Amino acid sequence: MPTIPEIPKINRPPKHVIDALKGIGTATVAGTLGHSGFRNPHMLGPVTQRPGKSIVGPALTLQFLPQRPDLFSEGEYSDPETQLHRHVLYQVEEGDVVVVDARGDMSSGVFGDMMSTYFKGRGGAGIIIDGVMRDRPNVEKLDLALWLRGWTPNYHVQVSIFPSAVNVPISCGGVTVMPGDIIMADDDGVIVLPPSMAEAVIEDSQKHAEWEVFSRQKLMQGADLRRYYPLHKDAEPEYEEWKKLHIKK
To answer: CA–CA separation, 165 vs 101, rounded Å?
Structure first.
């Protein structure tokens, strides 16, 4: 049996950080990151397969590479334990997100029914793939949170790629993902939040969310967009009075 390299462990953020982020949408966080110099945290390609679902959790990463005969042989996969896509699932703890760089490949189904069942049984939060999955009829019965490019009947190494590493830096949807990064996904898409930015994003997003509630109410009443979005400094005293009545500390 070929030797499987030791899989690096990830550092998971504190539960209170994850819980706080669950109340914030990806659009708000992407905006906050943009103003902090992170120009595009949004993955292009993977889209929700279960509208209405949202997730927040630390990333376990899986990297695929193009097949090359001196690095990969289909015959090696007669031993299931040489399949690295299994080993990322062995790392899953409750609330984790598996993020896969499948190179945008549309012909190799990274996971299928049984792997997805195992992932759900371990309490995983969701799966993000810059590529596709297989066994759609059965996988959909699991009601998993999935962001993918689509579906295929082919298995993961059938065509042109193979899994090469677990819990290493990857690119997914054009965004760098480090193992342990915080993944946030909803109907707008998937974004990557560096853990070092989490507390600042939470603080800024909460302030942003508060004045947006106020401004939304004013705009629904037909008030001037120039005054209330973004909130003009002349409207700030009005907003502060509104906060005293509506925001509980």
So the answer is: 10
pLDDT band at 1 (very low <50, low <70, confident <90, very high): very low
Query: Six-digit token pair at 224?
Result: 């001037």
Domains parsed from the chain with CATH numbers: 15-193 (3.50.30.40), 200-246 (no CATH)
Q: What pLDDT is attached to residue 145?
A: 98
Q: Is the dihedral of CA 116, 178, 25, 103 positive or negative?
A: negative
248 or 240, greater pLDDT? 240
Classify residue 43 as exposed, middle or buried by CB count within 10 Å of its CB (0-12, 13-18, 19+).
Answer: buried
Cβ atoms of residues 7 and 166 within 8 Å: yes
> What is the pairing mode between strands 55-66 and 161-166?
antiparallel
Q: How far apart are alpha carbons 36 and 14 in whole angstroms? A: 22
- Prediction pTM value: 0.90
Distance between CA atoms of 22 and 225, rounded to whole angstroms?
Answer: 29
- Tokens linked to 189: 């898409």
> In the block, which residue shows the tokens 């195992």?
118
Separation in Å, CA 187 to CA 44, 52, 127, 141, 246: 13, 6, 14, 20, 29
For 9, counting Cβ atoms within 10 Å of its Cβ (0-12 exposed, 13-18 middle, 19+ buried), the class is exposed
Q: Is the pLDDT of residue 209 over 50?
A: yes
- Residues 222-232 have pLDDT tens digits of 999 999 998 99
- C-alpha distances in angstroms, 150 versus 156, 210, 239? 14, 37, 45
171 has pLDDT over 90: yes
